[in-house]
Amino acid sequence: MRLIAAVAIVLSCAAGVAAQQKPEPKVDVDRLPIDVSKITKELKRQADVEERQGLNLRYSLHVYGVAPRLQFFREGENLTTGPVPWGAPTHQDIIDYLTPEEFRAPAADFSSFLRWLADRKKKER
């Protein structure tokens, strides 16, 4: 009985997977606005093949293009005295990160309150 149930489960899963797979649409290469023969000729013409032998290893290297130059620093960046981008956080950055926003500034300006009290005392005299 268990064998029949297991076979039924496997068949239902297989049928579900087969039903989910959609056939891929066929692409007519002749109708595309590119010339595949020109592309293959250009790739064959530009492909540099370099073969070397070293340490009893034989390998080949095919170069099809050149990667863009990496630019780590932009012009005008001050690396001697200015802050380094993506560098270590400063002390103030850590304080701002660890202190919740509600506790960063006092809730009331006590200096103004004390100044008001002092002015009031002066007026009473």
Instruction: Please state the structural category.
Output: alpha+beta
Q: Averaging pLDDT over every residue, what do you get?
A: 75
* Binned strand content: 5-15%
Number of helices: 4
Spatial order of strands in the largest sheet: 1-2
Q: List the helices and strands in order.
A: HHEEHH
Gyration radius over CA: 37 Å
Described by the principal axes of the CA atoms, the overall outline is: elongated
The largest pleated sheet is described as:
2 strands, antiparallel
Level of helix content?
A: 40-55%
Q: Can you tell me the residue ranges where pLDDT is under 50 for at least 5 consecutive residues?
A: none
* First-last Cα distance: 104 Å
**Number of β-strand runs:** 2
TL;DR?
By secondary structure, this protein is α+β, with helices and mostly antiparallel strands.
Polypeptide structure, described:
The chain has a domain at 32-64. 42% of the residues lie in helices and 11% in strands. It contains 4 helices and 2 strands; from the N terminus they run H-H-E-E-H-H. It has helices at residues 2-20, 36-46, 91-98, 110-124, and strands at 48-54, 57-63. The protein has a two-stranded antiparallel ribbon with strand order 1-2. A hairpin with a 2-residue loop joins strand 1 and strand 2. It starts with a helix and ends with a helix.
Keywords:
two-stranded antiparallel ribbon, 125 residues, alpha+beta
Helix/strand layout:
Blueprint: H1 2-20, H2 36-46, E1 48-54, E2 57-63, H3 91-98, H4 110-124
Antiparallel strand pairs: 1-2
